[in-house]
């Protein structure tokens, strides 16, 4: 029996999380779900969108999966996602980007993995005002953080039969910060002779990905670039509604749908639950339930290829529940 924290989130979060839970439970895997609430609706009661009991649950169970959570704009609250990553030291953000036959796209056979450093860079949130004149944000890059994220990328490549790791940076301009990330990447690469290594400046990276994404395999980069590049790559395979995500540290792992909470369609039963279902596939593999993960992935592929039961964003008319029902039927 696996004890797992489930954070439904807000907006469309509860709907897609419920669909994911039904799909996972239908595989026969033994999971005891501990459901805990987080999000904008809790601010009035707890003074924060991330009450302490959420962190307590994750620390107890070690594994969590979450739906999207709204970050209030201009209200002084830090992103729940960023807070979770920093508080639990979830230093890896892992986002596989893979094509499914049947999903409309200009690209075919996409199979990329973005490995994003999760705890520092400009996302450390070290900012201050310069009087009324301006504001300054500090870009923090440390050697230990560089070493562990790049080592993760290479180790992941070895374990998953990947051939190339590409470090993405802007060391031609930010010679000290991104220069350190690049230097550490070169040092780590020397320890993995079976994996090819290259590096790419982030602006050239975006252009090359759009033109020839098939050239790339595993890509590792600092926090901000990882956020941007992973969203760019999601466009190759149908958008953020298709992309899974995992935040992984030494002790804890939190799996998540990487798209927003889409409050404009909340409660309409039309949201695409693929992202959180694919995140659950990653979670199942992480806890050693490979057979159940494989069942879901194959069922998803069949649903997409047949194209009979698709949600509105994918050109279909199916509801969130009908889409989940179709996956379950194919299991």
TrEMBL record:
Keywords: Oxidoreductase. The keyword Oxidoreductase applies. Residues 3-327 form the Isopropylmalate dehydrogenase-like domain. Its EC number is 1.1.1.41. Gene3D superfamilies: Isopropylmalate Dehydrogenase. InterPro entries: IsoCit/isopropylmalate_DH_CS, IsoPropMal-DH-like_dom. GO terms for molecular function: isocitrate dehydrogenase (NAD+) activity; magnesium ion binding; NAD binding. It holds the Pfam family Iso_dh. GO terms for biological process: isocitrate metabolic process; tricarboxylic acid cycle. It comes from the Bacteria. Belongs to the isocitrate and isopropylmalate dehydrogenases family. This is Isocitrate dehydrogenase (NAD(+)).
């Amino acid at each position: 029996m696996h004890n797992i924290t489930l954070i439904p989130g807000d907006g469309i979060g509860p709907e897609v999380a419920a669909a994911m839970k039904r799909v996972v439970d239908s595989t026969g895997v033994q999971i005891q779900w501990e459901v805990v609430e987080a999000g904008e609706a809790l601010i009035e009661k707890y003074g924060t969108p991330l009450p302490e009991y959420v962190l307590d649950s994750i620390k107890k169970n070690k594994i969590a999966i979450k739906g999207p959570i709204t970050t209030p704009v201009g209200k002084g609250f830090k992103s729940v996602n960023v807070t979770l990553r920093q508080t639990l030291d979830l230093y890896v953000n892992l986002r596989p980007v893979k094509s499914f036959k049947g999903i409309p796209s200009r690209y075919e056979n996409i199979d990329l993995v973005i490995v994003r450093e999760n705890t520092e860079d400009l996302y450390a949130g070290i900012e201050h005002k310069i009087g009324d004149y301006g504001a300054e944000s500090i870009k923090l890059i440390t050697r230990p953080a560089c070493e562990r994220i790049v080592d993760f990328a290479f180790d992941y490549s070895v374990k998953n039969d990947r051939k190339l790791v590409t470090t993405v940076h802007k060391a031609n301009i930010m010679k000290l910060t991104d220069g350190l990330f690049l230097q550490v990447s070169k040092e780590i690469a020397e320890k993995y002779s079976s994996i090819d290594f290259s590096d790419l400046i982030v602006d050239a990276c975006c252009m090359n990905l759009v033109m020839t994404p098939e050239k790339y395999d595993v890509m590792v980069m600092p926090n901000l670039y990882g956020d941007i590049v992973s969203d760019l790559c999601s466009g190759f395979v149908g958008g953020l509604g298709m992309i899974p995500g995992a935040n992984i540290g030494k002790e804890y792992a939190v799996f998540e749908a990487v798209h927003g909470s889409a409050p404009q369609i909340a409660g309409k039963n039309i949201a695409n639950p693929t992202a959180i279902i694919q995140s659950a596939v990653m979670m199942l593999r992480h806890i050693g339930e490979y057979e159940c993960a494989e069942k879901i992935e194959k069922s998803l592929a069949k649903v997409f290829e047949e194209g009979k039961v698709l949600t509105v964003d994918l050109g279909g008319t199916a509801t969130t529940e009908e889409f989940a029902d179709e996956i379950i039927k194919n299991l």
